[in-house]
Amino acid sequence: MALLQISEPGQSRAPHQHRLAVGIDLGTTNSLVASVRSGSAETLADVDGQHILPSVVRYLGDSGVVVGSVAREAASEDPQNTVVSVKRMMGRGLAEVVNAGLPYDFTGSDSAVPRMHTACGAVSAVEVSAEILKVLRDRAVETLGGDLDGAVITVPAYFDDSQRQATKDAARLAGLKVLRLLNEPTAAAVAYGLDRGSEGIHVVYDLGGGTFDVSVLRFSRGVFEVLATAGDSALGGDDMDEAIVDWIMNELDIVDPDHYLKRRLSRLARDAKEQLTDVEQVVLEGKMADDSDWELLLERSQFNDLIEAQIRKTLIPCRRALRDADVQLEDIKDIVMVGGSTRVPRVREAVAEFFNTEPLVDIDPDKVVAIGAAIQADALVGNKPDDEMLLLDVIPLSLGLETMGGLTEKVIARNTTIPVGRAQEFTTFKDGQTAMSIHVVQGERELVSDCRSLARFELRGIPAMVAGAARIRVTFQVDADGLLSVMAEEQTSGVKSAVEVKPSYGLADGEIETMLRESMDYAADDVAARALREQQVEADRVLEALAAAVQADGEALLSKDEFAIIDQAAANLGEMRNGTDPQAIKKAIESVDAVTAEFAARRMDASVRRVLAGQKLDDI
Amino acid sequence: MFQQDYFELFGLEQTFELDRDVLMHRYRDLQKATHPDKFANGPEQERRIALQRAGQINSAYQTLKDPLSRAQYLLSLSGVESVLEQTTIRDIEFLEEQMELRETLADIRNDADPQGSIFHFLADLNKREKTYFNQLSKLLSNADEAALIQANDLTLRLQFVRRLQQEAEAVEEDFF
User: Fold this and answer.
1) Number of separate helices (H) and strands (E) present in chain A
2) Do the chains contact at B59 and A221, CB–CB below 8 Å?
3) Distances from the Cα of B51 to the Cαs of A157, A223, A418, B5, in angstroms?
4) Quick check: A612 and B11 CB within 8 A?
5) Is the C or the N end of chain A the one with fewer CB within 10 Å?
6) Chain B residues in contact with A381 (beta carbon < 8 A)
């Protein structure tokens, strides 16, 4: 068969060649990168042997950018040029970040993404995060000894669409191929579950530096099924530090501190919090504005009182998740603790009381997410072709549309398993109405103004009809990353309108491309070479997959004529692939796609039928 | 194959009563065959088809696993729902009862023991829900139109109960 000869020896990769993939935990306070090496997942260290990279970026003007502990040391000397906890700003609008009491000097931009003025110009949260990711990418390339084939980036389960999109943009900007955005608690469950092989219902309590998630999962026969998730994307260890800072300021009668003092106090507070994990009391000391010394004693019990309200705030989502999952306390096999903030003894105590069981803390809570992400990355990139593992995740917040009177109509309910597609029909409310504006929102509240606005778009060209006669079908499609795309179609006329949901607070189309071009990493030649390489890789992928598909099912599912058409398109692609024109390769891939679409759908259906046939035998 | 109804998709009979374990196992195996992660390394077209197919299977599972949405779906297949699209409940007794329940819930906020009262309130709602589902099961095993119309009426009542449950849960969270 001609097809099988197309991928000439040496052109495509050997099927068992190990591909390089990493899992990245992009945290509020700290970030890590991990990879599966000789069968086990481990976090990767920098040249000094440090695994944890503090998520702090300092802009130095002409001398460039520094990331990590060096930047963190400078946080209080140079607060305006040193960005900490950037994750809290991801996917957020100007109004939201300006009110957060941060030291940065914000400006809006064309795409409504807030930017901070730094010594290196105005930067967005996406660019700051990309700096952190680049450091981790370089570390991985160095350690693993080659370019990366892909990365899994973790996000809080409770991140909404805008926050997820921002994270994906940051990864692209850092030159990473994103295999998947993975929810942090799910990643932790993978690390624990595979480690122990324990089947049953698990709860993951994940309290990080700036986010809180709780997920209820069922693990059975290689499938991790998230039953429900809940959380708070603005609650974490940072808030505990803040509570100590407020206490200090109260004790010392400090009002209206400047940014320098605030950063110094935050640092002191964080150290005190960490020490109180092991000791019963700590002494905090510093200097007043008049240079006199001050000293305060903080006991663990006092600290517990300061954070009690925050801990309580984490237990409400725990209840909601259990209820949504329809799981009783006695059904739960174990509680997994994730995130540095779960080291706080009072947190462990409160969780143990609530769930009436001692939580598991045996995998380092700082590393467990990155390790789980690495395991998933290894599977996705194709290093374990026979692996049975499957992660079924959910969307954390309901998706809906604005209807008359500023009310939300839910299209996909929270805790629905993804990917998922749902359609809903709407109609016009005025005679002769020819356009309809569609406003997509995310959240649980009834009023649109209380939900997060994700996107607005217009469907135009609806034929004029009496009110209520038009049938507008709006289809929501959420992919496995939890990202939404929306399509609207008027049913009687077929007028269509589709949007990739570019969040209201996201970067505009093309902005990422511009940033990529401008970044120092890619010279002009590089961009062209990169485009060609990307198309060639995709062409190989298509040809390899097609050859395998034809070999497996060609005889059963294709007629002779159909085969001939596919074969010709494939031969053409093989020819273009060896040329130097990325556009020509892209076109050839598109023609192969067009002539194989039916075949691909038939194969999918055939595999579904095989599953059902096998199942029915099992039932007997 | 994309035209299949949800029951066919899972290889199940169109019935209200179904074995949740069978449904769950089929669901998982279907996801293992169609989930986009299984095609992460394949060409874009495969990933797109997988995304659509896995999404459809998830929608189907979501609809079939909850008895209320399963009942509504069965009614929509039988065509009863579309005939009765505009129906609202006219049973005055039922509506009065709902009003009373709503008032009880509002009063719980000022109760001496709101948590205890909410607990009982929710338990009572669950009991009502169960009764309705038992009736629904009998009606839906019957093919005649009168039974289906009654079943449709029951799904509307169940919607009231569900809404009330959600509101009660929200009140409970406030007092937690």
Assistant:
1) 16, 27
2) no
3) 20, 18, 9, 18
4) yes
5) C
6) 40-41
- CA–CA distance, B65 with B81 (Å, rounded to integer): 20
Active site residue A561: no
A285 phi and psi, to 5 degrees? -140, 155
The pLDDT tens digits of the residues spanning A276-322 come to 999 999 999 988 877 889 999 999 999 999 999 999 999 999 999 99
> Does the active-site annotation cover A87?
yes
The least confident of A495-509, B31-45, B143-157 is: A495-509
Give me the residues paired with residue A293 across strands: A287
Distance linking the first and last C-alpha atoms of chain B: 48
The predicted pLDDT at position A16 comes to 57
**Four-CA torsion A589, A592, A597, A600, nearest 10 degrees:** -90
Position B1 pLDDT exceeds 50: no
In 3-state terms chain B splits into helix, strand, coil percentages (rounded to 5) of: 75, 0, 25
**Planar angle of CA A224, A371, A180, nearest 5 degrees:** 60
Q: Is A373's pLDDT higher than 50?
A: yes
> Out of A47-51, A101-105, A447-451, A505-509, which region has the weakest mean confidence (pLDDT)?
A505-509
Six-digit token string for A598: 């039916």
The pLDDT of residue A63: 82
- For residue A612, the chain B residues in CB contact (below 8 A) are 10-11, 26, 30
Cβ distance A498 to A486 under 8 Å? yes
Angle in degrees, CA A31, A35, A38, rounded to 5? 155
Q: Which helix (H) or strand (E) holds A117?
A: strand A115-118
User: Which of A87, A262, A273, A502 is flagged as catalytic?
Assistant: A87
φ, ψ of residue A591 to 5 degrees: the values are -70, -35
DSSP A546-573: HHHHIIIIIHHH--HHHHHHHHHHHHHH
Please name the helix (run of DSSP H) or strand (run of DSSP E) that holds residue A611, with its range, or none: helix A582-619
A160 is catalytic: no
> In the prediction, which pLDDT does A342 show?
94
pLDDT at site A3: 47
Helix (H, G, I), strand (E, B) or coil at A511: helix
A483-534 confidence digits (pLDDT tens): 998 888 888 777 776 665 665 666 666 676 676 666 655 556 667 777 888 8
Overall average pLDDT of the B28-41 stretch: 90
Q: Which of A403, A423, A412 is nearest to A483 (CA)?
A: A412
- A25 flagged as catalytic: yes
In contact, A86 and A47? CB cutoff 8 Å: no
Reference A85, options A225, A221, A262; nearest CA is A262
Give the residue on B whose Cα is nearest the Cα of A382: B41
Stated as kind and residue range, the H or E segment containing A442 is: strand A435-442
| Residue A501: per-residue pLDDT | 61
Residue A228 in contact with residue A319, Cβ under 8 Å? Answer: no
Q: What is the mean pLDDT of chain A?
A: 87
**DSSP code of residue A443:** S
CA distance A275 to chain B (A): 31
Q: Quick check: B45 and A179 CB within 8 A?
A: no
Sequence-separated (6 or more) residues with CB below 8 Å from residue A348: A337, A342, A359, A361
Rounded Cα distance, B45 and B48, in Å: 5
Residue A606 has which token pair?
Answer: 């055939």
In A156-253, where do the E strands start and end? 178-183, 200-207, 212-220, 223-232
Judged by CB atoms within 8 Å, which residues 456-515 of A form the interface with B? 477-480
What is residue B36's DSSP assignment?
G
Beta bridge pairs of residue A399: A412, A442
- In chain A, the residue whose alpha carbon lies closest to the alpha carbon of B169 is A320
Are the Cβ atoms of A614 and B38 closer than 8 angstroms? Answer: no
The arithmetic mean of pLDDT across residues A117-140, rounded, is 93
Describe the crossing of helices A560-577 and A582-619 by its angle, rounded to 10 degrees: 140
